[in-house]
Design a protein that fits this description.
The chain has eleven helices and 20 strands. It is an alpha/beta fold and 400 residues long. A seven-stranded mixed beta sheet has the order 16-15-14-17-18-20-19, with helices on both faces. A six-stranded mixed beta sheet has the order 2-6-5-4-1-3. The protein has a five-stranded mixed beta sheet with strand order 7-8-9-10-11. Helix 10 links the parallel strand 17 and strand 18.
Length: 400
């Protein structure tokens, strides 16, 4: 891709420090002026109010954060740079595999801003690579990404699952869910640890599977043994529930989407846990109220609950209600494993929701552990948005 510079973006003094400190998005209100027509799209030099060079990035006029910073070097070859960064990231994951913290076959190779490739996701599932492009920067760099996968990572099968609010509403890009290279079946079959899963690469969530929960699936499964009862709410294709059933637990999985709930059933069969998992298809907020048994573990992993800070006030009562019902279903000393993948749900609001739910039930609880996204989704302190998955292990305690 050619790197013709369309002009300069002048940032306001208040944002200069943040950008120099590797925050890779520049919002509309941080730009004082541009040296080109505002409707143009392309590579730009980002400069301070004195016109001094800070970094290079890509400008897309329709977005709420029109500039994605790409490099602090003034002179680089974009193709070489993309390849170098993908490879750097791949090597990093291989080290993590060596350290035993990732599954060796299935992992996120590139996690967007955290791997200095803003807007690009690359996931590896055995011999399949799923890519997701979230912004116009990588919309323009897609050929380089595919070429990198083919030549440097020796990919045989590549598909694209590019969709989502940011891509469609903010960057005004159409969703694109297509096979790119090789043979992409309608269902991909993977083995994670000793568990088999199928998922739909082009109609599933993310690029098909929740790799970010890998480490947490292992942690929750480690708490299980034969005879325990587990409720897996918002189950998707069965992840947590099937891990627990493999350890001997009896599980109820709740999932609203009929297609995904059919896939849970497939996954139950292929793991030989048909007798231990019951699938309930329907709205968890309703279904949870109909359950009249008690559980040792309840896993709550809802979809993005709060999409903006302003939405918090409206949505929190629903979350509190859900937590209340979940805590009420726990046996004495049972555990609630609760997640939020909403970056905009502040940690203090998340914790307060649990506190209010416990207060309304009049029960004593304690946090026995904090969970987060798996290490193949590393996060950058200078870009807090890269840490989106928050989780807690909450124990119900006796009332001493
Ligand atoms: C974050 S994903 C869960 C991922 C899963 N725990 C895993 O590790 O693979 C959320 C799931 O909740 C489902 N879902 C969304 N709204 C729901 C609702 N109201 N009731 C039940 N399931 C719902 C979605 O279809 C999606 O599969």
């Amino acid at each position: 891709m050619s790197m013709k510079i369309i002009g300069k973006v002048f940032v306001k003094p208040k944002s200069e420090k943040k950008i120099k400190n590797f925050y890779l998005w520049i919002y509309r209100d941080e730009i004082s002026k541009v040296s080109f027509s505002r409707e143009m799209e392309g590579w730009v030099d980002i400069v301070n109010d004195r016109g001094e060079f800070i970094c290079k990035g890509f400008y897309s006029p329709k977005s709420s954060n029109p500039v994605k910073v790409f490099s602090y070097d003034n002179d680089f070859d974009i193709n070489t740079e993309v390849k170098k960064r993908v490879l750097f990231s791949f090597e990093n994951r291989k080290k993590m595999i060596g350290n035993g913290v990732l599954d060796k076959n299935n992992f996120r190779v590139v996690y967007s801003e955290s791997d200095f490739l803003p807007g690009l996701i690359i996931d590896k599932y055995g011999d399949f690579f799923g890519i997701q492009i979230r912004n116009r920067l990588f919309e323009n760099l897609k050929d380089v990404v595919v070429d990198t996968l083919l030549t440097l990572l020796e990919a045989k099968n590549i598909y694209e699952r590019s969709y989502g609010d940011y891509r469609e509403k903010d960057e005004k890009l159409e969703p694109r869910n297509i096979p790119i290279k090789g043979s992409i079946p309608s269902l991909i079959r993977i083995r994670e640890e000793d568990i088999q899963f199928v998922f739909d690469p082009l109609r599933g969530q993310k690029t098909g599977f929740f790799l970010d929960q890998f480490i947490n699936r292992k942690i929750v499964a480690a708490m299980c043994h034969k005879g325990m009862k587990v409720l897996d709410v918002f189950s998707y294709v069965g992840g947590f529930g099937i891990y627990c059933a493999k350890k001997g637990a009896d599980v109820i999985s709740i999932e609203k989407n009929e297609y995904y709930s059919d896939l849970i059933k497939e996954n139950i069969k292929s793991n030989g846990v048909k007798d231990r998992v019951r699938v309930v298809t329907g709205d968890a907020f309703e279904k949870i109220k109909e359950i009249d048994e008690k559980f040792d573990i309840v896993v709550l992993d809802p979809p993005t609950f709060v999409k903006s800070l302003s939405e918090s006030r409206k949505r929190l009562p629903m979350l509190i209600d859900l937590i209340k019902h979940s805590l009420a279903l726990l046996k004495p000393e049972g555990k609630l494993i609760i997640f939020t993948c909403s970056y905009n749900l502040l940690k203090e609001h998340f914790i307060a929701s649990i506190r209010i739910a416990a207060m309304e039930l009049g029960i004593r609880i304690r946090v026995d552990g904090e969970l987060m996204q798996s290490p193949d989704h590393p996060w950058v302190i200078q870009m807090p948005e890269t840490l989106y998955l928050k989780g807690l292990i909450v124990s119900k305690l006796p009332s001493f």
